[in-house]
Each structure stands twice: as C-alpha cells, then as structure tokens.
Amino acid sequence: MLKIVYVLAIAAAxxxxxxxxxxxxxxxxxxxxxxxxxxxxxxHLSWLFQLGDLLTGILLCALTILxxxxxxxxxxxxxxxxxxxxxxxxxxxLIFAIATIFDASNPLPCPVETTAPSAINGPLxxxxxxxxxxxxxxxxxxxAVIAMLLVALMQHFLIPQAKRRGIPLTSGSPDPSLDxxxxxxxxxxxxxxxxxxxxxxxxxxxxxxxAVGFTAAALYCTAxxxxxxxxxxxxxxxxSLALCSLWWLWCINSxxxxxxxxxxxxxxxxxxxNSDAKRxxxxxx
Length: 285
Description:
- The protein has helices at 2-15, 46-72, 80-105, 117-120, 128-164, 179-188, 204-223, 233-256, 258-278, and strands at 76-77, 169-170.
- The chain is mainly alpha-helical.
- Keywords: Membrane, Transmembrane, Transmembrane helix.
C-alpha cells in the first residue's frame, strides 16, 4: 500500500507540472501569463494541459483517501484538536482535487495575453466556463494555503503539546499488508512516524519554507485581481505551482519516510544476498 501512496504522490506532482511544457505554446508569455492559458481551446496542444490537470485531480483524490486509510490503520497520537485538524486536511485535499478536475474541465475560453481587450468581455470569451474556471482556480489556491496552515499548526504546536502532556498512542486496526514495509524501514534504521500519525514532526523547517513560499506567491497572484499589470505574474504563479507539488511530496516523504524505505529495501537485498553466500552447499559426490 505504501508503494501506491508514493507512486500516487509522485505521479500527481508530475501531472501538475505539465505547465513546464509551456515552450510548446510559444504564443503564451510564460513571464506574465497564467499557466491556465495553455489549456485554452484555441491552442492545438490544449488537450495536453487539460489532461495534466485532470489526472492531477484524480490522482490526488486517490492519494488523499489512501493516505487517510494508512493513517487510520496505525497507532497514532490522538487529541481532539489533532483529530479536527487532520479531518480538515483531508477535506482540503479532496476539495483541491475535485476543484482541479472542474478547473481542467472548464478551461479559459480565451487566453488573456493574446486576445484583444474588446473581445475579452464579448460573448465568445465571457462564458459560464470562464466564471467556473475563475472560481475553481481561486478555491484551489485557498484550500492549499489552509491545508499548509493546518499542517504547520499541528507540527509546531499540537503534536509537541500532546507529547509534552504524555498522551499515549491509541491503537488502530493493524494492516498486515504494511508489515513488510515497516520491517524494512526498521532494518534501515529510519525514523518512521506511523505510530505518531500524520503529519510527521521531522523536516519541519523544509515544509514551513515551502508553505511560506507558496503562500507568498499565491498572495502575489491574488493581488493581480486588484492591481493590474503586476510584473512577472506568470513566473510567480509557476513558482507557486512547483512549491505546491514539492509540499505534498514533502508531506508524504516526511510522514512515511520514503528515503528510509529505499534504504531498507537496499539493506534487505544485501542481507539476503549475504545469507545466500554464507549458506553451506552440499558436497558434490
């Protein structure tokens, strides 16, 4: 199951990075135009960017549900504030995923940078799809910031507070399918945090830096609604997209310890190989 969680997280991050293929649509200015303009139907490669966002939403739905199951089926520190925050993070993840699907299904009808100002407010551009896209885009950024704030709140305050109070781990239902992964991680000596639950309290500084960077970039993009012609708007937005992907990869890695899992797999293979090499062989008669 853990392999699936890792694969889903990485695949979603890659799908969310289809904006990196922007040079294939040179008509869109990557410095000043939003990445969503790549998905406008006027471009022959719009399907590529729409498909990327659609896959991102589907993969993140699956990732959120599966990660929640992994958390529930293992021992974890439980307090009411932690339970509420964790439930809200799951809700934010699902809203983010569903909004991304709607965002991909309702692309911008007209790219702003290449459409005449007189046509932007015309019937061909001012469509219901435009308003749905604007709403879902704003919703995606909002729930992402909320999720990051909730995770930071748990890591910096709620989990340390629970540990200081000596709150014991509460047993969940064991999941035999994860035993092998857990044993490998222990063999590697990695700092697993299954028993603590989501989120882990390691690499906290990295996550905080990613969250602060994303929030600052998101606020800059939001300011464009009130302040026109902000410089480097497209560049800042693309940075925010990259930071968002890196943040959810950090969440999974710091919680489940992908680096430790890889070390455990390597050590397990070496141990097996050494055992086979030391095993006595029967003499040949």
